[in-house]
Each structure stands twice: as C-alpha cells, then as structure tokens.
C-alpha cells in the first residue's frame, strides 16, 4: 500500500487505490485549467495549445464554470500530477488561469 501526502491529491490517490486502480498502465489524465474570468483570452488558448495540443474547451453551463480540459497520456503518479498542475498553473498565471484539479477515468 502506497503512502501519499495528506492533501487533496493524496486523497484522490487513496480513493483510486481503494478502487483497485491499476497504476502499472498509462491512462489519459484530464487536467482542468480554470480562469478567474470566462472566457479566457485567445492568447491563453494559443499558449496552451502550443504546449498541449490535446485539449478541450468546456463552456460554462448553468451549474458549472467553463474551463479548459488538457489531456495527457501518462502513468498516474503523484509526482507527475503535482508537476503538471504546477506547470499548467505557471503557464497560465499571466492569463489569470490555474490548474488545481485533475481526474482519470477508471474504465
């Protein structure tokens, strides 16, 4: 049994482990990039696409804010998730964007 830090991301890893997630395989990981105001500037989208071409713009709906969903195919590790959230947040900081949430489909 793995020991992840006592934070929100560690909680996700503990739930994945409880659900018998197979960490040995690569999966598409969705990183959600949020912005202080919607829509994000066109420059922000261009910058993200330059680094991460596999993304989806999710428009706001009545019960949720809009965000950009960046897809990366990789092994699901705590270090990778933390690194990617920091990288995406740093890339979007000038555009009032940040990444502090992610998910992976347990098919």
Protein traits:
alpha+beta; 4-stranded antiparallel sheet; 107 residues; Alpha-Beta Plaits; 34% helix
Account of the 3D structure:
- By secondary structure, the protein is of the alpha+beta class.
- It has one domain: Alpha-Beta Plaits (2-Layer Sandwich).
- Helix content is about 35%, strand content about 30%.
- A four-stranded antiparallel β-sheet has the order 2-3-1-4, covered by helices on one side.
- Strand 2 and strand 3 form a beta hairpin.
- It starts with 7 loop residues before the first helix and ends with a strand.
- The mean pLDDT is about 95.
How is the secondary structure organized here?
Elements lengths: L7 H11 L7 E10 L6 H10 L3 E4 L8 E9 L2 H15 L4 E8 L3
Antiparallel strand pairs: 1-3, 1-4, 2-3
Summarize the structure.
The protein is an alpha+beta fold and 107 residues long. The chain contains 3 helices and 4 strands. 34% of the residues lie in helices and 29% in strands.
